Every structure is written in structure tokens, then in C-alpha cells.
Amino acid sequence: MNLDRLSNGEKVLGISAIFLYIIIAVVGFVAMLLILLRILDPPTFGTEGLITFEGAVHLPMFLALLSAAGIAFGGCLTVWEENPPGKVEWD
Question: What pTM, to 2 d.p., does this model score?
Fold first, then answer.
């Protein structure tokens, strides 16, 4: 499936391209929220409030947050390009 061809209003499985991009943006935002929750409340692995090495926040977690933000931003940017604020056309 080539998403570049969907910009002229084509549909995939009966779904408009704009809804696919909205779904991508929402999934990116949900992933960001889940990663932020994991950063703010890391697991303690049965210890009494002491964050061990296994539960510490590491660089890969922040890279995952950055990746999820990129997915959400890309989805929002594509929705913005497909449907500018002055042009409202919902199928």
C-alpha cells in the first residue's frame, strides 16, 4: 500500500486516507502517554520505594519517547497538509 497515492482522496478498505492519518497520530499520542507514565512512575520490582538499577530511567526510554513524539507529529502534520484549516471536507 502506497500512502503517497492516497493524497488525492482514494480509499483503502473503505476508509478515507485522512482517517488513517488521524489513527496514526492518535496511536503516537497514546504511545507518548504510556512512555511518560513509565518514566514518571518506574517499576520498583518489589523493593520498598528504592529504585534499583533495573528500574532506573535510561537513555533508550527517552529515545522511545522521542520516536513516539515523531510518529504523533508526523501524523498531525500529514492531517494538516491533507486538510488545511480553511478547507473542511469530511467523507
Answer: 0.67
**Residue ranges making up the domain that contains 17:** 3-82
Give the confidence band of 68 by pLDDT, cuts at 50, 70, 90: very high
> In this predicted structure, what is the pLDDT of residue 18?
81
Measured between alpha carbons, how far is 74 from 39 in angstroms, rounded to an integer?
23
Evaluate whether residue 48 is within a structural domain.
yes
DSSP 45-58: TTSSS---TTTS--
Kindly provide the residue ranges of all beta strands, DSSP E only, lying in 9-65, ordered along the sequence. 11-12, 15-16
Gap between the Cα atoms of 24 and 6, Å rounded: 15
Based on the number of CB atoms within 10 Å of its own CB, is 58 exposed (0-12), middle (13-18) or buried (19 or more)? exposed
